[in-house]
Amino acid sequence: QDEEKWDFVLVSDIHEVGSQKEIKRKKFLDELSKKGFTIKKIEDKKLFYGVRAPRQIFQKYQWLLRNPDSRWQSPDAHQDVPVTTRLCLAGNTQSFTNTPCSLPPEKLHDLMKKKVFEASFPLHEKEEVREFLKEKWARWRSLFQHQPIEKIRCYFGEKVALYFAWLGWYTRLLGIAALAGSVVFISGITIFSSSQVSKEICEANTTIMCPLCDQNCPFWYLSDTCTYAKVTHMIDNEATVVFAMFMAIWATVFLELWKRNRATVVTNWDLYGWDEEEEELALELINNLQHEPLQYQHSYLRSTIVLILVLVMIVVMIGIAQALVVYRVVATALFSQSEVELLREQANTVAVVTGAVLHYLTIVIMTKVNRRVALFLCDLENPRTFSQREKNFTMKIFTFQFFTHFSSLIYIAFFLGRINGHPGNYVRIAGKWRLEECHPSGCITDLFIQMAIIMLLKQTISNVMEYLIPCIAHRLRKERQRPTRRSTVLGEEEEEAEDPCKKQWLNNYRLNEVNVFSLFDEFLEMVIQYSFTTIFVAAFPLAPLLAFLNNIFEIHLDAIKMMRLYRRMVPRKANDIGVWLQVLEAIGILAVIGNGLVIAITSDFIPLQVYKYTYSPCMAENSSGVDCSTGYINHSLSVFRIQDFEPQTRAEALPSFNGTQSKEYRDYRNADDYSYTVQFWHIFAARLAFLILFEHVALCVKLVAAWYIPDVPQSVKNEFLDRKHSNLRKELRWVVPQEM
Q: Which of 127, 552, 655, 663 is the most buried (most CB within 10 A)?
């Protein structure tokens, strides 16, 4: 039975005898045979080669990378090699194997590019661990059960196990953030109708506002935005500031507690001091004793070219964000001319919603472009090792994806409605279309709508497609692949029914392909979600709740994909989540800056506080019992004379407005020359002061939290201390008798 266990299967098309591909395939397999690999051939519609690594490879690995804390053990001490280690070694050895007499030397990766081999994968075998994971983990009915991380590690290796451990930990702590966000949102609902600011807007049925677009848009009453005003003040209130500060602390506590949890987990796996570079060197030496390591090199020319190309990509993505701005501007103008009353009256809202959908589509398209560009830049850098290549690729693709997702949001949050000018002197695109304004109820509404649509679309559509596409692809592959021929073992024919391997190999081949970036894609998806959950959470308190609900399904969706729909990943060792930890820490800092800017610039929190403590009725004597927000709306509007409209853009006034020669708009400008008022500069100074104070306090709290929570638990430190002490005593016992 043990003889029929195979580490890997290589798949190839049936090439013509004597063809270049057939010759290269034979040379590669011969080279594996020289290294002691056992090879079994099965012929169907494709050629399948079972590959089993020789035992001496594992003995070399055990000796080279034995635990230094256990060096007192005899080198001949027998230890069984875990299945994941066996698959990792077999996969790396065949990957490093060169075809002889070829210039340049061709490895398996090169042969697969040239279609000499179609696929290479380890097998899903009918072992006890796999059956347990399929029944107890990779099922929808196990949605709320604890993840068997140890068994995941035994089947997929440490890298995959750490991904699920991190995702589970993130989801667990996300529950706290989701609860806090829900409380903030519900508290906003309680003041849905009681907010003094909302009341003033709803009662402003005599306040006439300037048109929202040129010519076809009418003047309108401020009270027309009553419902939107209530929604705005449901998310734009004092609780939002507290929640933003809470999320800054939460992000720090989450990472610090994860570091502690990781330390405990990898210590139990005996991998705390594992060195990735040493592992890669050992694998190279096991494959070729004459191997010389690639030396560290740095090319300023390459780095400069890569930096310039990265900046060009960032500029392109910012340009796409500006294209979306142009779309919203033009769409607003077109919708305002529509014969459909709903489109005409809600032109701005419809433009924002359709713009958000268009933004989602650009994200889908640019994700594919970003991957190709990032891979090209990594090839240009020519990194020394695979781990360095993976790190470089991660940083580039995350940078590209960050700007793809957030360029448009940054514009909406910090520029929308602030660079569009004022009535009579609007900033225009191509001298024709005036730049869009914030929603009449406030700028934060636009950001809320944009984030809600992107998160809902991204999470629901992505998860549905993430499951349906591999499921359908798997079924189609099963239909196309039918066993038809006889099998050959070392040149001898057997009846198809007598070969126990054929069915297993075919079933594995029909599963969907995996590659070195399969797990990377899952990490990237979650890190982008983490960015949405933290950076602009002040504008969308429900983001943690949506992320929490998504992740409950994401964990088991990934489990089902890996166990039932995809081929087995090549196990890889790891003792942390790699460069993703630094990315998450950077996002935590960006979250402080982003939320501080949203509260200071996007929301009406600061203008309202300035009004309360400077201009409100509460500042007068005998003001007890008066709401300090009374009069805020009227105080935040500026007056514009109709005769100052540009002739070609003057809107048609409604009959009921004919007796009024001045209208109002949201801004702080003088009525005579439209220059900024003193109040504008008071608010500007207050915004700046709040931003500095908020960010310094939040960053200080983050630093204190990071200091207060040690990265490594005391139990782990004490375990290492006891282990070192015990090993030193055992070493000393060998020395003392010799001295005597």
A: 663
Q: Is 542 left (phi over 0), alpha (psi -120 to 50) or beta?
A: alpha
Domain match, 63 and 183 both = no
DSSP class of residue 666? E
107 & 148 share domain? no
For the chain, which residues score pLDDT lower than 50?
A: 1-3, 68-78, 486-496, 655, 740
Residues 116 and 155 both lie in one domain: no
Q: Closest Cα partner for 97 from 383, 275, 291, 277?
A: 291
The three-state secondary structure class of 434 is: strand
What whole-number distance in Å separates Cα of residue 215 and Cα of residue 219?
10
pLDDT of residue 496: 46
Say if 671 falls within a structural domain.
Answer: no
The four Cα atoms 686, 689, 695, 698 give a dihedral, to 10 degrees, of -80
Task: Output the pLDDT for position 258.
Answer: 94
Supply 688's token pair.
């700046």
Per-residue DSSP letter, 566: B
Number of domains in the chain: 2
The set of residues, in sequence order, having a beta carbon less than 8 Å from that of 203 and lying 6+ positions away, is: 223
305 occurs within a structural domain = yes
User: What pLDDT, on a 0 to 100 scale, did the predictor assign at position 436?
Assistant: 78
Instruction: State the pTM of this model.
Output: 0.88
- My answer on whether 162 and 295 are in the same domain is yes
Could you tell me whether strands 492-494 and 637-641 are parallel, antiparallel, or unpaired per DSSP bridges? unpaired
- Residues 474, 426, single domain; the answer is yes
pLDDT at residue 661 in the model: 61
Amino acid of residue 521: D
Question: Among all chains, which residue has been given the structure tokens 């820490």?
Answer: 585
What's the 3-state SS for 353-409? HHHHHHHHHHHHHHHHHHHHHHHHHHHHHCCCCHHHHHHHHHHHHHHHHHHHHHHHH
Give 190-242 pLDDT, tens digit per residue: 877 778 888 888 888 888 888 877 767 778 888 888 888 888 888 888 888 88
Tell me, yes or no, whether 362 and 508 share the same domain: yes
Nearest to 232 by CA among 240, 242, 244: 240
Cβ 441 vs Cβ 417: under 8 Å: no
| pLDDT score recorded for residue 72 | 37
In the block, tokens 């256990």 appear at 70
What stretch of H or E contains 425? Answer: strand 425-426
In a domain, 432, yes or no: yes
End of a domain among 89, 122, 155? 122
- Say if 128 falls within a structural domain: no
- pLDDT, one tens digit per residue, over 38-97 is 999 988 888 999 998 888 888 888 887 765 444 334 444 445 678 888 888 888 888 777
Last residue of a domain, one of 606, 622, 641: 606
Q: How far apart are the first and last CA of the chain?
A: 54
147 and 115 in a common domain: no
pLDDT in the model for residue 188? 86
The reply to whether 74 and 185 lie within a common domain is: no
For residue 67, what are the contacts with CB-CB under 8 A and spacing of at least 6?
270
Of the candidates 193, 191, 222, the one whose C-alpha atom is nearest the C-alpha of residue 209 is 222
Q: Which amino acid is at 158?
A: E
Position 486 scores a pLDDT of: 47
